[in-house]
Amino acid sequence: QDTSEVPKEKHDYQSDVARLRKIVINSLYSNRDVFLRELISNANDALEKLRLTALKEPEVLTGAEELNITIQAFKDDDGHGRIVIRDTGIGMTPEELTKNLGTLAKSGTSEFLARAESTDTTGTGNLIGAFGLGFYSSFLVADRVYVSSLAAKSSQTPEPAQYIFSSSADESSFETYPDPRGNTLGRGTEITLILRDDALEYFDTHKIADLVNKHSSFSSQFPIYLFTQRTEHVPDEETVEESPAEETLEKEVDEDEAVVEDVDEAEETEIKEPKMKEVVVDEWIHLNSQPPIWVRDPKTVTDEEYELFYQATFKDYEKPLAWHHFSGDTGSGTSFRAIIYIPSKLDDAYWTNPLATSSKDLRLMVKRTFITSDLGEDALPKWANWVKVVVDAEDLPLNVSREQLQSTKFLKQIRQILLKHILQMLTRIMEEDSEKFEEVQKVYGNVFKLGAVEDKRNRDKMVALVRFHTNQRNSTSLDEYLANKKKGQNQIFYLADMGKTPEFLANSVFIEKLDARGYEVLLLGDPLDEIFVQNMRVWKKVQFQDVAKAGLKFGDEADPEEEKQELEVLTEKFRPLLDWLKGQAEEVVRDVVISNRLVTSSCAVVADMFGYTANIERMMSSAPANQGSKSPMHEFAKKQKLLEINPKSPLIQGLLRRVEQLPAEDEEPDVEAENELKEVASVLIDGALVRSGFSVQDSNEFFIRTDRILRRSLGVSETAPTDTTVKPAPPVDPEIKAEDDFSFLDDIPGGDQPGVYIPESLRDQVSWEVEEIDEEGNPVHPRDEL
Ligand SMILES: Nc1ncnc2c1ncn2[C@@H]1O[C@H](COP(=O)(O)OP(=O)(O)OP(=O)(O)O)[C@@H](O)[C@H]1O
User: Can you tell which superkingdom this protein's organism belongs to (predicted)?
Assistant: First the structure.
């Protein structure tokens, strides 16, 4: 209608909205069906909000009786047309129209925009699923959008007024103004999409019905009605009654024909059907008339229905990994039905602080009416806060407030029940579907380790879900490990080095003897592994033993006395070398000892009982200084290392001989021979450090010494200097010449503009923000333009 007389307020979009709209309009053509799903989901949210508000303030229900969503398509005479989506939800005040539709309040928006802007269209499709474009997806199919809204009457909005928000796809601003039609809605919001010429397919009500059935029939517990018109053929009663003359005429003709036709046919003409006419019947079709899937018998629900329900309810673009649909009784007499879903991905944010967030996706319904998705801080243990659940209780009063609810017996019981079912579900997948369990492991493997540490009550069940790589197989549980342990073995051997692959760890100096002898060693490359092991310490009465630490026992050692004696003999034999090496390594280790864990390697650096392994040392030094990484305790623990030497190694035996040949203290010193030996020792110690996962103390010194030893092995003079003359820089010259050659910039796209050049191959992997500054160095915030 004509709005030229209405005073309009013009607003600029917030810059992020402008960016978002640009992405929507330019790059999502192939995903444009999503607009309907997004608008229906908004309508549903508005209705849910109304219903929740009405629990406290029933007045909001005035204005419109039904709580529903309607969709109508109108075709204009000129072939253009509109789609109108209406809800009787909470509505928006004029201020809310501006705020909600003109700004983006969502966290992570900028990050999303940067990612969407830097990826191609296909990638963006997935991002949108993850982010939800909401209202702006309207512009995928519409040139212009009008949102007319009338807020629900409440104490805050005693006199609501129907206002319009209007914006076209190619403007960077929008307008708001009073709806010239007055109050036509009663309550709620009406979105009118003026369809683009290339989106006229959405006039087809079959298409709309299909889309709603596929993507949105689960999005709303409120009825969704679609306006349709169908043509019916009905007896033309008017003609029968009002123009008998015509009938007579027909009869006459028939009688004429009967002259030449046989009698039968003449009779048939007598009972001729009445004349039909076409009438257009208007009809509102209820699109989501099936009962919600959680109340249905699981046998009647297809996998696709479970998946679509999940995607619509939890706004996840991906299909769930698994689900479990069950019903029960809380014990205090409240019966319920529930579906638990395991998403196929963890939110990126999960690992930034896994124990800080609580679940926001436990949707509680009472008698099919949504009540809340926030069941309180500790609704589930933190490790499980990614689980998505719909639970519908039969016998709770509908008007319980959120606060009251959290203290009800029902809630306490339902939490326990849900947790029990989550664990049962995971255990069942583990026992019955190894392929699925592998998928679950990929996403949640670390979560289970965290759960075993955090959730002491369910520790045994969590540990059963945990899997590790070993030197003998790709995946084993701790129970499987114990089933495979050797006779006499009384330790669970593990090697932890965060960030390293199992293949790398399998070649570690620390497991060479264990591996050669056929013992299984857990190879732990994840930071969480060390935390898991440190917290567990013992599993089924068997201790964990870090193979990079003192205390390793195979369990089949011969008579301990005999072994002790053997060690004493060896220690005595190697005494000169042990003592001499201790002097050389005193900066690095506490002592030098004979090893029982080495086969081919000559030596290794092992953490003492109370010392740090390389892995823990790295974890400690990445912790903030105030968390102990610089404390005296830390410094002490760092020094608690032993240099273990392999008495069978020819290198060690050779070194022993050379040390024994050194002049005794009371003889004339052989400085040259001693220095050469010291150098060898130093490289040996540094090599052992590196091989054992530690870093060398001074990498420059290490390199210089290696250089000298290499020269020696090649027979090159150790003292011959390298020619170190270099061309000095020209004299100081602050002048900038105007004719400097910048022609190389011509080859770089955008090289004539200030900015950063990114090679083509890296463009989709990086993003950056550039801030323009004025002459005083203050940032300028230019208005984004579409
Ligand atoms: N039909 C509606 N009735 C009432 N308010 C609405 C309606 N549609 C949108 N809004 C308001 O506008 C806001 C922005 O909507 P938009 O769809 O862009 O994002 P969202 O719904 O918050 O998030 P998303 O749809 O991505 O989950 C909503 O949060 C809501 O406050």
Answer: Eukaryota
